[in-house]
Every structure is written in structure tokens, then in C-alpha cells.
Amino acid sequence: MRQTIYHKNHLQLEAKMASFAGFDMPIRYSSIKKEHLNVRKNVGLFDVSHMGEFILRGKRAFELAQKITTNDVSQLAIGQVQYTCMTNEAGGIIDDLLIYRLGEEVYMMVVNASNIDKDWAWLQKHKPNNDVRLIDISSETALLALQGPKAIDCLQTLTAMDLKSIPYYHFERGIVGGIDNVLVSATGYTGAGGFEIYAETSKAAPLWDALMASGEKYGILPAGLAARDTLRLEMGFCLYGNDMDENTTPLEAGLGWITKFDQIFIGRPKILKQKGKLTKRLVGFQLLEKGIPRKDYAILNEKEEMIGRVTSGTSSPSLDVSIGMGYVVNPYHKVGSEIYISIRDKRIKAEVVKRPFWKA
């Protein structure tokens, strides 16, 4: 298995490690609930250096980015970030990702770790023959997510950048903890506020310890991938491979807001035909009885007919109830619909609810 630059830090903290996307990654350090609630209340530090980063550079970089993603890249100013996804010719989601506009003709795509090779091949396949250069900087980039309401206080002690002046989904470059050329992005996957911090791997090793030391008085704790998952689920954020894949379209996954039909992108004709004619949709639900929904559990109606499957589920640490997401057929996507989750041969009553589940 591959290791991130912070692997030794995780071992020193006696983290429970497991394989994820080919990397030996920390799942938890103490308990999932403790790490989760600390991110909601204070600040948590995640190692997400397994993610992939690609640079698109050149006169036709914008053209390529616009063609292979569903959102409108023309809306990006330099210093701005955009959530988007790549779709195949059938409209299925290849990956969901972030695009950073680094310069006049320079973009960075941040992709899911499990999809790095697939995404890179897709980019190469659709790359214009000239005027655009693709660079995979994944192995040269370390990425830490500092998340929680006190993240800004923790990070501000390590940089002269005015963090309060960085709007949501924008970024700046500067020095952090004595390390130069660090990109600080006001983004994250937890819904708790904070930053994602990109640094060159060759320089990034001291950054973990610097953030942990700076955050001590703010209650910082390291957090693993398990807490990252429960945090994102409380916000109703999709996880690739669970809540979306190449067999689901952005409209089915509730991502119509990042699907801009006034621009031409791969898969547009197929997705456009779905508009107003969806037969299945991703919904959020809350259990009304005791139980924990898990991926691939059957979703039933009152007649015990199968109407869908769970894609993500957990016991919410913040809400102290069980929540989940899954695809259901019409008309069970409507908020307030009564559904049942099949858990160990028992029908557990649930209700379709609006996302996010957790609100600050």
C-alpha cells in the first residue's frame, strides 16, 4: 500500500489504519463520535493527501475543462473554486471534483483518490492535440483538511494571510508555518467550516505538527476517514462509489445545480433528455425506529415492494438518530414519504427528509 507523507504521524498517534484507495490511511484515532463532535464544536485535522491533483495549462485549458465537466467553468475568476463532475457519453458520473482557477490559462482539478487513474485517462482521451499541457501532481502534493468553527483561529497563527478575507470557495497562496507556496482554500467536506491546505510534498512534512501545536488551545484533535464520512453524510454530501457512479446521472444524484445545459459538455444530450422525466432519485431519510441503515440495504414501501437501495447510512453523532441516503423510484422521492429499510429481515420505518440533515 502507498503511504502519505504524514503516515508516521498517524502511527505515532496509534491510529487505526486500513487500506483506502490503495493507501494506508487513518480510519480513527480515538472514537468516531469524539472526532466527529470535536469537528462540529472545535477543530479537527484530516490527512487527505491521497486525493489526486491535475494541472491543465495552456491556451485551450479552459476549452478542455468546459468540455469534460458539467458546471460552467467560464464563471471562475482567478482565485476561485468550483464544485463539478465529469460525465461519460451516457451521462453517467465518472467523478465529482473541484476545479481551481490558478491563473489566466491554468486550472487545477482535485479528484477522488480511487478515480485518479480513470480520471487521468479520461483527460488524456479528450485533450486537444496542442495548446494544453496536462500534469499529474498528485504524488507531489500533500493535502490537509483543517475543519471546524475554530479552524480559522488555529490556522491564522501560522500565516500572515488574512483568512477572514477569503470567501467560501476561494483560495489564496502564501506562507504557512514557514512553508512557502501553500494554497489555502476555504473549502471542505464536513459542513463545519474551515480550510483545505495544499503544499508541496517535499516541504510539507512539518505542517502536521505545526497545525497540531497551533490548535492545541483550540481543542484540536486528529480525525480519521470514518469521522469524515459521518460528517459529510450529515450534510447530505454525496460520496463517489456509494451515492453516485457511472450508472447514475447528475440529475438523479440531485446535482442539477452543477449541471449547466447552456454549455456543451460530454453526456449533455443524454442528461437533457432526463429533465422532467426522472424515474429514480437520490433522497435523504431518517429512521423513525431503532436501527442503522447500511449500504445496499433494500428500501421498501408499505406493501413490502422493493423501491430502492440504501447508498449511505449511519447513526448521526450530532443528531443522535439514524440517517441515510438512497435511490428510490417515483413517487417516493417526495419529502414526507413513508418508506421502510430492510435491516436483518426487519422492516424499519423511515421518512424521506430534506438535506442537509444537520444544520449549524
Tell me the helix content.
10-25%
Rg for CA atoms: 21 Å
Strand order of the largest sheet: 10-11-12-9-3-13
Label the structural class.
alpha+beta
Order of helices and strands: HEEHEEHEEEHEEHEEEHEHHEEEEEE
CATH level 3 topology of the domain at 7-49 and 139-234: Gyrase A, domain 2
Q: CATH architecture of the domain at 7-49 and 139-234, please?
A: 2-Layer Sandwich
CATH superfamily of the domain at 7-49 and 139-234: Probable tRNA modification gtpase trme, domain 1
CATH hierarchy, class of the domain at 7-49 and 139-234 = Alpha Beta
Point out poorly predicted stretches.
none
Biggest β-sheet: count, sense, barrel?
Answer: 6 strands, mixed
Which of globular, elongated, flat, extended, rod-shaped describes the shape?
globular
> How widely separated are the two ends?
38 Å
**Average residue-wise pLDDT:** 98
In terms of DSSP E residues, the strand content is 25-35%
Number of strands: 19
Count, helices: 8
Fill in the keyword field for this structure.
alpha+beta, Elongation Factor Tu (Ef-tu), domain 3, 19% helix, 360 residues, Gyrase A, domain 2
Give a brief outline of the structure.
The chain is of the alpha+beta class and 360 residues long. The protein contains eight helices and 19 strands. Among the domains are: 7-49 and 139-234, 2-Layer Sandwich (Gyrase A, domain 2); 279-353, Elongation Factor Tu (Ef-tu), domain 3.
Task: Report what the structure shows.
The chain is built from 8 helices and 19 strands. It is α+β, with helices and mostly antiparallel strands. Among the domains are: 7-49 and 139-234, Probable tRNA modification gtpase trme, domain 1 (Gyrase A, domain 2); 279-353, Aminomethyltransferase beta-barrel domains (Elongation Factor Tu (Ef-tu), domain 3). It has a 6-stranded mixed beta sheet with strand order 10-11-12-9-3-13. A 6-stranded antiparallel barrel has the order 14-17-16-15-18-19. Strand 11 (179-185) and strand 12 (194-200) form a beta hairpin. It is globular and about 65 Å long. The model has no long low-confidence stretch (mean pLDDT 98).
